[in-house]
């Protein structure tokens, strides 16, 4: 690893200046500090020498995932991570990072500047600027539901999404459903792509029709429902799998508003098993991600990397939680299927997550 | 879980008889003991109540992998597992199991009968009878380099084989190789299938020709070399990736006997990084599996399952170890390529692993 002197020599400044910059002293200009930090990172200087061992800091970096309330996806993941990290003597800081921020600060510089020994990264989409940084980063990093190949400093944790989708499709097929649809969030994230691909794989595995028209995706939930749900129902779809619970809940509400009973006319399955699923109407069949365990696994993977055990990927089993939104396929198609009756029209904007 | 009484009621025998059978008492006939054990398993009775907690037994089940000597693939995997399990108070028994044995004894019955709390399974091929048992087994089991979906009692550990193949193909492409071949063991094992598929994926990713004729596989190493190596060399292949080190070593020896220099005329890459690789002529570039860490991960996954953390899959990063069997692609093809000169003929049976 480069020394302070190496960095000083490269930049033609004193070793003291380098030291001050790396320790965030206020008597160095911001521009010079930035140059010194970036040079330090470029030269492979990945951790500041600690004056004491007292502070061992990890961070959880978040984008696109809600986490402040117990009913939100990120809450238990963070809790599980803390439950392991804090008793082991780490301080854990939760840091939301916008794409603008990522564009302006290289990842390794950010980590070095803030004295973080490693990061657990939640919810980044594929175009997030730091996703590129992760390919070559020298910082120990664990990604939830993202995957970077061939960088031994990066690990991935999550559930086996493919297994989850297979369990759901197989459950529906056993209930007699033959036309199964899929509603998905935008495909700009790794995990949405994995689930989408797994859906078609599972249809083929079960010997069911795997036509691209079975699936629809949109960034906004209401748009996804408006654009794709009536189309699926009218073509005789009797069961719909959703890429996450919030879409599934919106789909159940909309089906009921259109005169379809859940599960008698159409079965619906979510993904994640958020706390809401036990209280939807009807209670929702869904694929569980054990979020506490995901958080704990994130810590375990990070600690393993710190101990030179090069974990690349740690996946937990998915579990299908069967509640009341799935049932036997109807003997005959719903009257609205393949018709253009008024009940098939969708009142735009009528779906609300507040319901 | 079923009780002794439940089992006794089902079979119309006394509870004492069931107890004796489950504890291997010699005054019960072998046939009755077998019936009682199989019924116990069928009724979900997955562990014998221990009279004491003194003995906590795990087993390592082995098929197709050599493990008795330090230079063999299984040796360090077992060592890593023991290094974790024994300090934690477990006894570890290593049990080779033939396919005949598997056919005659259901897996859960075997585990119950021998009081094993869990198993680490090495080297099973896809047709191994217990691979079917694993799909529905209630015994906690970790598979090395095999994968069973949707059974929460089963986990998988290994390295990221796809990543390993990508690293190797990318390394060869960077050295200027455009025609890359692949020699593989028989495709009747999960891991051979994964590596084979990964090879063609990696070629496409690098924008290289991914023709099925680039690859060849056979069960026996000499047969693989005899059948596929001359064909690859004569069609202008300048680099050959192998599914494991022993094939790569045989390929290097055979290339040299055919008048090709390694790496000047042809580059060769192995897989596994067995201890032999540092001592082959020339020392072999290969993809490392850290076998001690695989063993330790096997224990970690099993212990996690015992603690109700449903690990499905734990993959370690693959590492490319660059030695001297790979080099820059030759400027022009070897004279023997695309010719039928005598140097291209293969003396049958001339390859020996003893060399």
Separate helix tally of chain A: 12
Detail the poorly predicted runs of chain A. 340-355
Instruction: Tell me about the largest β-sheet of chain A.
Output: 6 strands, parallel
Rg of chain A, alpha carbons: 24 Å
Beta percentage of chain A is: 15-25%
Strand order of the largest sheet of chain A: 2-1-3-4-5-11
Q: What general form of chain A does the structure show?
A: elongated
Description:
The structure is a homodimer of 355-residue chains. By secondary structure, chain A is α/β, with parallel strands linked by helices. In chain A, 38% of the residues lie in helices and 17% in strands. Chain A has twelve helices and twelve strands. Chain A has helices spanning 4-11, 15-22, 30-42, 73-85, 99-104, 107-113, 129-136, 161-174, 190-205, 221-234, 245-257, 291-306, and strands at 57-62, 91-96, 116-122, 141-144, 154-159, 180-184, 215-217, 239-242, 267-272, 285-288, 311-316, 319-321. In chain A, the strands form two sheets. In chain A, strands 2-1-3-4-5-11 form a six-stranded parallel sheet, with helices on both faces. A six-stranded mixed sheet of chain A has the order 7-6-8-9-10-12, sandwiched between helices. In chain A, helix 4 links the parallel strand 1 and strand 2. In chain A, helix 2 (15-22) crosses helix 3, helix 3 crosses helix 6 (107-113) and helix 8 runs parallel beside helix 9 (190-205). The longest helix of chain A has 16 residues, at 190-205. Residues 340-355 of chain A have low confidence and may be disordered. The interface between A and B is medium-sized, with 25 and 25 residues. Strand 11 of chain A pairs antiparallel with strand 11 of chain B.
